[in-house]
């Protein structure tokens, strides 16, 4: 199911967090509310790690990862790298890569099987991605935008892309990714999907400005309604309540 | 296969649909990703635009005030009024773009003007929203300064032109009336009234009067003087209000007048025989010596330096019948007309058949006259020469007469008619006799117009709707009575507002 949260009054939760099937990274905020929201959902299932990357809080946009690995930009400090290596499970390969485009979260969108990358990414980086994340890499654009990591968010069950994507593009991407895709918005009409939400196979977190319509689209395309974490049976479902009058 | 701008293959791009983020209805994606109705309900681009306004309107002249001082004439719900209202609502255009404007109908007596405007403005996310906006303007009635002045004193004139000609007939004034109508010289006149030997024109401002006086001096030889009378004066701002009067005297010599030139003038003109005929009056006097075919022109200023009166004028023309013509000299063209000297034997029509009074005279009409024709001339048979040491001729023929032929067509309506000026006629004293005289003179004037194409040059003639061309063949024989070529007549355009000239008929010259 999808939850609406805020990071320090900002609705761009995808900027300050990274959610995968094996772990969750959260930025260090002034209050603990953001972290508690993730903890409440995921505590028993996957580790929720508080971190910074390159001394910044925009960790969601700087790193890219799935259950197999995590890629970090060259600006990551050694302490951060070590902290992450310690906190994450052993099967997750943490790798710092030398790449000119250092905002890896904006350049790479991936699930556990397929990744879409920025068309100008280095050849070596592409190979590293295929190696570390264990995915098939495709260079693509979304609705004419080259920052694929920002304008689409997809998991193993479904994906949400930029609203101006044409039908032909949608079909093509869907074929590549092998998941159903839908064009839509989050955070009350914002087109930057991945910055406004973060998602894995059984849960999603959206900015608090997300309208009920958008939330229902998210829930239906990512198939979150029946989704349960693999080891926990959750009977109670939070009902959707509009938070503003 | 579609080719893009660079000639490369571009795959077809069909736009998909997304859900409106507020209401969930499917729609094509737009920069805000909200459907139009949600957008309209959330964003109001007409916020801050004026919804009410006031305009000032003068009910007399139906014009609207554009502060601080300009009054714009406009009808209700007209284009001019729309432009005027939009100009008054100028602050509107600062933030939004105006796409369309129109009037919403209101009752004329409601004193409200409703405008429906369509405005466009860019909202957040770059989407351009178009919305319609109603503005209501309240109309306040207030007399504009011109109308209030007119209301206070409707007959207030500040300049008058008194046009006078000291002759016994009104031919000049008929002619002038037509000229004035044609050129519209008196449209600014507040009032025109008829006086004993002339006309009075009243104007609202001195400059209009001056313009009129200049027009008159361009068509007839005049001398004028102007005077002014102080009406009021504001000592603080040094404003003086005057009434100006222009006294314009027209030269008493008319066409076809017989003039005896004073010796000084005759000498100045190169010893032109003292008896001369005036052939044409424009801004100068054209004189023709009928016995030598010499002509001279007298400028207005030249004439007034040594003014002289006419000896005999066209009221004293007598009809003669031409018995014989003997052309003496060859044809000469003087001032556009052809003359040739001839000896003619004529007899007065009153004498003809009764006695044998025959006069042999020299005439300048050798060109025109044939034996058996009728001519009009001045009878000098019994005249005393007085101080002049010249031989007075017995008769001076002036023009050919069509009187007989006219009698055949008497009573027929003319195919053309003239318009007349709107005058206040002084009906008090003169009475019946004068009116008779006037009608006769007018009839002669119309005949003059028929006979002389050059007179018609500056006059507008209108087609007479009541005229039916005669079905009988005209009694031909000799030359026909000269008449107006019908193509030259202007059709009187009748519109609902009044009559207007149709200028397609062009110039009047044949």
From TrEMBL, chain A:
One of its GO terms (cellular component) is cytoplasm. Its main location: cytoplasm. InterPro entries: eIF6 (IPR002769). SMART domains: eIF6. It is found in: Cytoplasm; Nucleus, Nucleolus. SUPFAM superfamilies: Pentein. The keyword Transferase does not apply. Gene3D superfamilies: L-arginine/glycine Amidinotransferase, Chain A. It comes from the Eukaryota. One of its GO terms (biological process) is ribosomal large subunit biogenesis. GO terms for molecular function: ribosomal large subunit binding; translation initiation factor activity. Keywords: Cytoplasm, Initiation factor, Nucleus, Protein biosynthesis, Ribosome biogenesis. Binds to the 60S ribosomal subunit and prevents its association with the 40S ribosomal subunit to form the 80S initiation complex in the cytoplasm. May also be involved in ribosome biogenesis. HAMAP family: eIF_6. Monomer. Associates with the 60S ribosomal subunit. Belongs to the eIF-6 family. This is Eukaryotic translation initiation factor 6. It comes from Elaeis guineensis var. tenera. The gene is LOC105058060.
